[in-house]
Amino acid sequence: MIDYGFKEELVLDWISVRKDRKATNTKTALKRFVKQVELSGEDINEVLGVCIDKSWRSFNASWLKSIDRF
What we know:
By secondary structure, this protein is an all-alpha fold. The mean pLDDT is 93. The chain has helices spanning 8-20, 27-40, 44-53. Helix 1 (8-20) runs parallel beside helix 3 (44-53). It contains 3 helices and no strands. The N and C termini lie far apart (23 Å). 53% of the residues lie in helices and 0% in strands.
């Protein structure tokens, strides 16, 4: 994720969220997450920050429409 452009601190935080939520960190999960982030059209680190704030173990671009932050 860092090579893709995500900030290291955010990546480490999100991995912790996923671990706490019992989500396995697989290549497939990462690819699907990145695809949804791209579909959102938003800043990748902003999206990752929202995922951390909301304790989301995954992400769907449509979720941003239902929260106040966006």
